[in-house]
Amino acid sequence: MNVTITEAGPCKKVLKFEIPKETIESEFEKKTAEVCDTVELPGFRKGRAPRKLVEKRFGTQIKDDVKQSVVGDCYQKALEEHKLNPVGNPQFGEIKLEVGQPLNFDVTLEVWPTFELGQYKGLKLKKKPSNITEEDIGKALQGMSLRKAQLTVVQDGSVKKGDHIICDCKVKVGSSVVLEDDDVEILVENGVAVANTPVPDLVTKLEGIKSGKECEVEIKLSDNFAKEEFRGKDAELKLTVKEIKRLAVPEVDDNFAKTLGSESLEDLKSNVRKRIEIDKKNWAEDDLRNQILDILLDQTKFDLPQDFVNYHTEQRVYKHQLDLLKRGMPLEEIQKQTENIKNASVESVMRELKASIVMDNIAEKEKIFVTENEVEQRIADIARAYNTDMARVRKQLERQGSLSYLRNEMRENKVINLLLKEAKIEE
Question: What CATH number labels 150-248?
Fold first, then answer.
């Protein structure tokens, strides 16, 4: 067997095989003898049928078996001899087998990248501060208060930025009224669209106006205006304020704390502090992990198999599109964003795949592995978190083909933990 290997791109190779005719003839004799020994033909006992009759009746099947056997064996030997680690399924060219003739065929395949690992122990990292300030607690309490805020009608007052107003709306181009709409709700913020047209100075025009009063704004109708013939025209927008609504934010005190299940404001602050401590600790640890990946990827340069990247990118884009559909985004809008989604996904997928390959390489060198007992414990943890049983979680993971991903994630976490332990961390 003669094999010639040529490069066809990043991590892509073409293997050209030349199998001598003697190998084909030997395998043909072997397969024919196997059929002669096992086949039963009318008028002959098992294994007694004449060879020529067997070849005439089963010749096509025998040739297919020979082709499959020879091609498969030679391909596997080539992978072992040249230490090739293929990714995905190989693409076989046309294979024409003729007994008495050498067999020539080619195989195109992608392989895992090979590279030299740089220094991965003793990495210099900087740990972000995780101390908690009164400002942190104040911001958290303010956010909790805002989430409890409710819109209330302003009985005696004027419009302020951030208010919601109910008003009648009228749009005029010259002396013609081109749009009239009643009881329109508008958020008083600059740039908010009224009549499908952004109004840059809306706050300036509305601030200080009381219920029952009017304001007029000069605008240029947008390309999305309802009536096509008036798009891009200068117009006058008249708003008659009928009702002003404003967010009433509850005061952060003992009563507020009790609405959230705490005994007092001090008790609430204590709980908030504990939560922030956990969040900051996790944030600092995540940042250290990202620093490790950044350093390793920066010092380890290699290409990725393009077809492999394309496949994972398409899967990422498809999942993201499904998520957007579930959130109610129109299909037409999703399709407009597809190219941007794909570009962002390519970059993300490249980083994740490279990180995974580097982590796997380190795991091999350090002999890091995950036991089945550890996998079972992780499944038990997941089951507890979702208040279900282990059998159901395992079945779901197997159905989704996610068990291997779970093992890989656990193995990568072990690698990261080793690198954190060996790292030089500056507080």
Answer: 3.10.50.40
CATH of 258-426, one of 1.20.120.230, 1.10.3120.10, 3.30.70.890, 3.40.50.880: 1.10.3120.10
- Residue 17 makes CB contacts below 8 A (sequence gap 6+) with 1, 2, 3, 71, 74, 75, 78, 103, 104, 105, 106, 107
> How many CB atoms lie under 10 A from the CB of residue 199?
22
Residue with tokens 């992608």: 110
10-residue mean pLDDT series, the chain (427 residues) = 89 94 90 81 74 79 90 94 89 90 93 89 92 93 93 91 94 93 93 90 92 92 90 93 93 94 94 94 94 93 86 82 80 80 82 91 94 93 91 88 88 95 92
Integer Cα distance of 275 and 268 in angstroms: 11
Given the DSSP bridges, would you call strands 124-126 and 424-426 parallel, antiparallel or unpaired?
Answer: parallel
> Which sign does the torsion angle of CA 332, 338, 340, 345 carry?
positive
For the entire predicted model, the pTM comes to: 0.68
Report d(CA 201, CA 234) in Å as an integer.
15
Residue 78, class by beta-carbon neighbours within 10 Å (0-12 exposed, 13-18 middle, 19+ buried)?
A: middle
Domain ranges of the chain: 2-110, 150-248, 258-426
> Which fold would CATH assign to domain 2-110?
Alpha-Beta Plaits (3.30.70)
Q: Which helix (H) or strand (E) holds 351?
A: helix 331-366
